[in-house]
Amino acid sequence: MRIIGKIIFVIASFFIVVGFSFLLLRHQSDRPLQAVTANSNFSQHALSVYDSNYVSLYHQYGLDLPPFYFSISNLALPDSFKYLPASNEKDFLIYWCSKTGNAKALYNIYQSLCTFHNESWMIPPSQILNLQRCSNQIISSRNIDTLNFYYAKYYLLLPRESKAFAFLNGVKKINLDAAWKQWIPAFHFNPNNQFALWLSDGLSNGNGIYARSWISKNTVGSALKKPMLITFIITVITMLIIVIFSVVFSAELFLKKEKRGVRTILSALHFLYSIPSFFIGALLVFIFANPYQLQILPANFSFAPLVENDSISLITLLDSWTYFVLPIITLSFGAIVFFTSMLFRSFEEEFSKNYVLSAKMMGQSNRTIVYKFVLKNAVYSSSTFLFLLFPALLSGAVVVEQMFSIAGIGNLLITAARSQDIPVLITLFGLIGFVTALSFILLDYFQQKIAGRLLSTKEVKE
Amino acid sequence: MKWGYKIILFFVIVAMLAPLISNDRPLVLISNGEINFPFLNHGSYAFGDDDLKVMPLIPYRAGVSDFDNADFKSPFDVQQVKNNSMFYRHWLGTTLRGCDVLAGIISGARYALIVGFCSSFVSLIIGLLLGAGSAFSSVSVNRISFLQLIALVFLLMFGFNLFLYVQSDLLIKLLLFVLSVGCWILVSRIKLKFDRGVRLNFEKIESQLTILFSSIPRLFFVVAVMGIFHQGILTLIFLLGLTGWMEIARVVRAEIQKIQSMDYYAAAKLSGASWTRITSKQLIPNLKPLLIAVFAFSFAGAILSEASLSFLGFGLEANQVTWGSLILEGKESFNAWWLIVFPGFCLSSCLAALFSIARKGNNDIYSL
Questions:
Q1: Residue A417 at interface with chain B, using a CB cutoff of 8 Å
Q2: Which residues of B are less than 8 Å from A396 in CB distance?
Q3: Does domain A220-461 have CATH number 1.10.3720.10?
C-alpha cells in the first residue's frame, strides 16, 4: 500500500511541476506564437488582436485555453475572459464584469468589436476614424455612463447590414444589477486546457504548441530520443564503474589498513572529495587531450562514430570507446571517492560483529571474510546512496556534457535554456523529475525488502 | 582555531577588502593640493604620472582588459607592463582579453561567498521552520474539525478572489479580509457532535514536500528557470536557497526528535519549565553544533553550484568575474593552465575548509 501511495504522489508531483511551469509562462503569452511563426509583429497586442491570422493561430495552438484544470475567481467573471489574447481588452472585460456582473452583454460587445475590425472595409472611409475612436473609448472608459453613451454612439454609427450590428442588436443596455456577484468566490473546472492538450497529443502527434521544439520545429519526442540514449549509456557505464571501483578500492584499503601509505590515502580522500568535477575535467583535458602535451585521448565527443552514425549499434559503441574515457573519469571521480570512504567505514563497523569472529575462528583468511561475508552487509547499509546516484549523475552530466561537447540531455537543456525553447525545457524537466521520483520509489521498495529481511532474522534470534 | 575556519576567514577578509586590494584606480590621489579617494567613485578618473598617488597592491580590476598583454600571457612569460616594474606585473597571468587573473580570483571569492552565504541562509531559514515544525507537530496531535476545514478553504478562495479580481479600494479589501478572518475564528469555535474532524499530519506533509523538492535536480532546475527569467545575483540566491533546504530540514527534524526523547528534556518538562526556557536552555545549545555543520555543508553546496553554473555560462551577469567563469575561459585555450589551476585550487580549498567545518560539527552525518 505504501508503494501505491508513493506512485500516486509521484504522479501528483509531476502534475504540479509541469502545471507550475505553465503558470510561469502566463506572463509572456505572445512568445510561443512569435517563436512558431518567426514573426515579431505579433508582439504588438493592439494591432494583432484584430488580425484574423493571429487569432486563428492563437486558437489553433490552444493559447486561449486555461493553463490548468482548476482556477479560482468569482461568479461574475467567466473563466474564458482571463485567457483572451490582448491584454487591453482583457483588462476592460474583467473590470466591467466585476462592476456589472453582466458578462453576456459584455462578451457580445467584445465580439462585435472584433467583427467590426475584420469587416471595416464595408464601412465608408469617412466613418472609420470615428468608429475606431468610439471603440477605443469603450475600451478605456471606467465610468458606467460613458460606457453606455459610447455603446449607443457605436450602435448608431454601424451600417445596418453588417455583422457587428446584428450582434449589438441583441445586446441590451448594460446595467449595474448584478454587481454583487463579484463578492462570491467560485471554482472553475476546465477539462479542456493547455496541460491536458500537452499531455494527450504533445509527445506523440506534435499538434499542440508545446509539442514541437520552437527552434528546430521537430517534435519534442524525436528531439529527445538520441540525447537520452547517449546520456543513458554514459550514466549506466559510469554507475557500473563507480560500483566496481569503489568496492575493490575500499576492500583492498581495508585489508591493508595497517600500512602507513594506506592511512595517508584515507586522510587524502577528504580533500579529493572537495575537488569539483569540472576542475578535474579541465585538468584531464589539459593533460591528455592537448596537442602541446600528451595527445592520447580525444576530448570532443561530437566526432565519435556513435554520434556521427544515425543508428546506435554495439559496433559503433565499441568503436568509440576512447571518447568515453575522459567523460566517465570526470563524472565518476567524486562518487568513487565518496563510496570508497563510506564502504570503508561500514567495513569497520561490520568487522566488529560476531559472525566475523566465528569465521575467523574457523580459520578463514581476512580476504575471504571481506569479499564473501562482510561485503554483502556493507553494500546493503549504503544502498540508499546507490539509488540516489542515478539522478545525481544526471545532474552532474550537465557540466560534463558541456565540457566534452557530448550531445546528451545536459547539452540539450543548456541549448534550450539559451534559446528559451520552452517545450523542450518543460519536457526535460518533467522527465528528469519523473526519473528521480522513480529511483526514490525503487529505493523505498528495496529498503522495505531489506528491512523485512533484517526484521525476520532479528525475530528468529529472539 | 581550526584550519577550516582559518581558510574561510582568509577568504572573507579578501572578499571584504577586494576593492582595496585590487583596483585600477588609486586609493589616495593628491593633485593640486587636493586629497581624493578615487577607489570610492565609479566614474572615470584622469590623473597624470607626476601626481602623488597610492596604488592598491594589485593595480588591476577584474574584467577590465589590458590589451598589451592580451591572448593568454602566462605568469612566466615576458609581459609588457608599465615602466617594466614588478608592481604592474600580472602575477597569475592573463585571459584572452588580457584581464588579470589574480584580480578575477579576488572578485570570484567575493561573489562565491556572497551567493553561498545568502542562499544557504535562505535555505537554513526554510529548513529550520519546516524541520522544527514537523518535529513539534509529531509530539502533539493536531486535529482540525471538518467545519473549520471547509471554512478555511472558503476563506482562502475568498482572499484569492478579493485581491486579484474584485475591483475596489485596497483599504476596503483589507477590511473585508480582516472581517472574514474574524468570521472564520468565530466559526471554528462551533463544535458539532458528529464532526470528528481531520488529523493534521504536518510531519507527513513535510516529509513529502522534502521528497518532492529533492526529486528536482538542482542544476537542471536553476538552468531551466534562468532560461525563462532574467539572470542576476538575486535570482540565483533565491533559486539556490529554494533548492537547498531539504537536507537541513531532515537533519533538524531528526535532531529535535532525538533531543525530545532525552531524559533531561523530560525532566525540564516535568519541572514545569516554560516553552521559551526549554527552547533557550535545552534545544538551542544542543542544536548549535549541528546547525553550524549543516550550514557549512549547504554553504559548500551553494558555492559549488554557483561555480558550475557560471562555468556553464548561466547565473551571474557577463561582466561579473567568478571562479567558474575563469575556468570556462581557460577551456578556450589548450595552453592556459593558469586559468584552470588557480581558480580551481581556490574553489577546492574553500570547499575542503567548509567540509572540514561540517565534519567537526557532526562526525556522524558529514564524515564522508
A1: yes
A2: 219
A3: yes
